[in-house]
Amino acid sequence: MVKKFVCLGLLCAVLLGCSYSVYSNAYPHLKKIAVRAFENLSPEFELGDKVLNGLSQMFQSDGRLKLVTQQPDCTLEGSILNFEENINSFDSGNNVQDYMLRLTCSVVFTDLVNNQVIYENKSLLLSEPYAVSAASTAKSKSKEEATDELIDKLFKTIVQNSLETW
């Protein structure tokens, strides 16, 4: 009899635990978001599309806000101010070992329901290293993978400073 109560208690705990989410939304009235194309002021022609597509996919997979094109509750818009690539380190033979990508953006996350800016950063700087070769310290990350990481960091920064203000 005791085993039945313990098993039943564990089953209830598991079932109730499944409904718990680590995601929070500090603005529960926001249900739909429109991610606008970022103005691309960088020399990387394709970066604007890559940022728009990456952010859109991340909001869609995150699930807190439904991605829409019309009648949104909030918008995300911004500009890519700069995208640069600098040497990060050399090996013992004085050859370039890895590079550092730096992405500078201006972002605005706006609540259209209450007509207020929730998060704004006019000079958000993100950086990510990438390797020249598999033997370097940047864990063999390519420039494309590092760029994807920058977009992921951009998404996380925006979400942490807007939806997760707790």
Please sum up the structure shown:
With 166 residues, this protein is α/β, with parallel strands linked by helices.
Give structural notes.
The chain is built from 3 helices and 6 strands; from the N terminus they run αββαββββα. The N and C termini lie far apart (44 Å). The relative contact order is 0.17. It is 32% helix and 34% strand. Strands 1, 2, 3, 4, 5 and 6 form a 6-stranded mixed sheet that branches. The longest helix has 20 residues, at 143-162. The protein is of the alpha/beta class and 166 residues long. The protein is elongated, with a radius of gyration of 21 Å. β4 and β5 form a beta hairpin. It has one domain (29-162): Double Stranded RNA Binding Domain, CATH 3.30.160.150. α2 (47-62) crosses α3 (143-162).
